[in-house]
Amino acid sequence: MAVMTSLNLAALIGQRLNNVLLGPAVSLRFTGGGEVMFEGAAHLDGYGRNTGFRPGDDAADTLVMLLGDVVEDAGTGDGGELWISFGSGARLVVDADADAESWAVAEAGGRLIVCLARGELAVWEQAGTRPWSPFWDQAAARL
After folding, report:
1. How far, CA to CA in Å, does 102 sit from each of 18, 38, 98, 121, 129?
2. Which of 16-20, 55-59, 68-72, 125-129 bottoms out in mean pLDDT, i.e. has the lowest?
3. φ and ψ at 79, to 5 degrees?
4. 104: which strand partners?
5. Taking Cα atoms as reference points, which of 34, 58, 22, 25 lies closest to residue 140?
6. Is pLDDT at 110 greater than 50 in this prediction?
7. Torsion sign (Cα): 137, 12, 26, 3
8. Structure pTM?
9. CB 120 within 8 A of CB 3
10. If we measure between CA atoms, which residue out of 27, 17, 18, 20 comes closest to residue 141?
11. Whose CA is closest to 16, among 42, 40, 34, 41?
12. What is the DSSP string of the chain?
């Protein structure tokens, strides 16, 4: 495991969002096998609005508008926030949490990135395997 402050998520680029699971945690699943899961505060800029929400809020329903959209760029900021830009011009940002894990990205190639408390990023490389994290089990149990 490596701990970092920012990184590029090139493996998501070009993937189409084909599944959105809403609940106490949000799961975004992409055509190339990538998955983004988050429990923290987020906001979606696009479609003529800027919507802030937390998973479980009614406002999280706006994520459904992204279905079928293709990722143009994705990465993380120095504070640990996750950002994903889509072909439609929409941009999703998930904030880091001061006290808990806020988001995770599992790439089809086996890399798992988890945003730990205070925005630290932990990265596991498991080539050829589907990444696993306790965050995944906890968040999936809430869906």
Report:
1. 22, 6, 9, 10, 23
2. 125-129
3. -90, 5
4. 37, 114
5. 25
6. yes
7. positive
8. 0.84
9. yes
10. 27
11. 34
12. -EEES--B-GGGTTPBEEEEE-SSSEEEEETTS-EEEE-S-EEEEETTEEEEE-TTSGGGGGGGGGTT-BEEEEEE-TTS-EEEEETTS-EEEE---SSS--EEEE-TTSEEEEE-GGG-EEEEE-TTS----HHHHHHHHH-
Task: Provide the token pair at 37.
Answer: 């899961």
The amino acid present at 41, given as its one-letter code, is: A
Site of tokens 């994705």: 74
Length of the chain: 143
Residue 142 — pLDDT band, cuts 50, 70, 90? low
